Amino acid sequence: MNAAHDHDQDAGAYGTGTYDADAYDARTYGTGTNDAGTNDTDAYDYRRGIQAIWPETERLLPTSVTETLAGLAERNDRAGRLSDSSVGALREAGWFGLPVPREFEGGGGSIEECCALQRRIGAADPALAIAVTMHLFSVGVLVEHWRRERDESWMLLEAIAGQQRIVGNAFAEPGLAGALTRSHCTARRTGKEWTVNGVKVPCSLAERSDLLCLQVRDEAGGPESLLVALVATDSPGITVERTWNTLGMRASESDTVRLRDCVIPDELVFHRTRPGSQGDEVFAAGLGWFCVSITACYLGLISAAVDQARAALENARITHLGASRSELPSFQSALGALLVEVLPLEAACAGLARQLDARTADPRSLIPALLALKCRAAELATRAVEAASELVGVASYAATGTASRLLRDAHAARFHPPTRFATRQLLGRWALGLPFTFELDERPGFAGDERHSARPDERPGLRRNERYSARPDERPGPGRNERHSAGPGERPGPGRSQRAVGEAP
């Protein structure tokens, strides 16, 4: 488990590495005593039970910030755009640098902590949560690349954290059906630069992002012709068109980005891989970041809908029965049935995030479970919010208000790639020991470019030369072109690549 995750389990109770009963009781229950049965009641408090699943994150994002975000959510939805105040509140709290290691001026947040925060933001304003999850995904890919290569990509991380840059994720394209390791955007090398053309849509926070993380295809071809790069959003040749006008997640600002002869310096191309490859460990780890953080957003949305239902059941009285709905077994059971579905997903999301943080398993081995988690969250989101809306009553059918907004927002869950069509196919092939890809493939027996039969000692879907055999305590060797392997306390020598991100050549 990384140092950022080990740290901060609240020094008062856990900081010494030993169990302190008084500190634990005082922190958790307030009194530090067990008399009169008071603490027994508190132990079963609903909110306490939910919080026990996730790490404490108040120090990373104060409740006052999420309250501000929640107060702006309705206005954001009506406008179909985010308030500058919403983004500013996160920036002021240092949220955009949270996933970057501390040695590069970041917050050093673990994946689990990032997910816990996304759950809280998702409960406050789901559209904002979805939009900034794409920042997490982009930065997560960069972090995972740096952890394995230890190359000059640290400078990109330092610029993002130190300057609180927003990184938009520009991986989605028309015609890809959600495939992340392919691109219709072309890149042509000219000296030490790349000239890129293509369209990216939808791209959350496109207009207000400082940087875009995108994948493009080297038109010269070759075994590593899929390039992943960062580019300043205000670079010549990049235009953003406001095209996002949807039923739900209206304020995520997921607009269209057009690249026309956009020049990307070679040093901003931080990763290369084979198009259609599922053997790339960096992509697998980045996909892990996405699966757990997007699931956490929808768990936050569901929790907000459940809170709406809880309040409605407590406040609504049925006069001829002389009782509130919360006192009636039928409504109690209906709410309980909803939580039976939600709570295991909460625990699974937190658990998989912890597993990614632990870095004891090849992330590719976790991909089936991660994709199943995300697929289950997408299926549950609409069903859970619909069930909660029924408990709220006819007020949830109003044209405005939190309940109806959550109902609209929940439907977006089914459209995030990989979709359930690709995920179910992948899981079936995985279980049968057949080659698979992260994308939809309708050709029986084949999986994208993987036209071979996996031997018993090979991971399904990977070419033999793509297998990752490094032990947990062993880093892969130098990256392509024998890049400098800079250690955490070591900086590469001066050079062209040390310019600030977005600075002109």
What does the model show?
The chain is α+β, with helices and mostly antiparallel strands. 43% of the residues lie in helices and 12% in strands. The chain has 15 helices and 10 strands. The protein has helices at 3-7, 11-14, 21-29, 38-43, 46-51, 63-79, 84-92, 111-124, 126-149, 154-162, 281-315, 329-358, 363-392, 402-410, 420-431, and strands at residues 167-170, 186-190, 193-203, 211-218, 226-232, 238-241, 255-265, 269-273, 317-318, 323-324. Strands 1, 2, 3, 4, 5, 6, 7 and 8 form an 8-stranded mixed beta sheet that branches. A hairpin with a 7-residue loop joins strand 4 and strand 5 (226-232). Helix 8 packs antiparallel against helix 12 (329-358) and helix 12 (329-358) packs antiparallel against helix 13 (363-392). The longest helix has 35 residues, at 281-315. The protein is globular, with a radius of gyration of 24 Å. The model is unreliable at 1-37 and 447-505 (pLDDT under 50).
What structural class results from the helix and strand content? alpha+beta
Helix content: 40-55%
How many strands appear in the DSSP assignment? 10
- What percent of residues are in strands? 5-15%
Amino- and carboxy-terminal Cα gap: 39 Å
Order of secondary-structure elements: HHHHHHHHHHEEEEEEEEHEEHHHH
Poorly predicted spans: 1-37, 447-505
Assign an overall shape: globular
> Which value, in Å, is the CA radius of gyration?
24 Å
Number of helices: 15
Topology:
Layout: H1 3-7, H2 11-14, H3 21-29, H4 38-43, H5 46-51, H6 63-79, H7 84-92, H8 111-124, H9 126-149, H10 154-162, E1 167-170, E2 186-190, E3 193-203, E4 211-218, E5 226-232, E6 238-241, E7 255-265, E8 269-273, H11 281-315, E9 317-318, E10 323-324, H12 329-358, H13 363-392, H14 402-410, H15 420-431
Parallel strand pairs: 1-4, 2-4
Antiparallel strand pairs: 2-3, 3-7, 4-5, 5-8, 6-7, 9-10
Helix pairs in contact: 6-7, 6-8, 8-9, 8-11, 8-12, 9-11, 11-12, 11-13, 11-14, 12-13, 13-14, 13-15
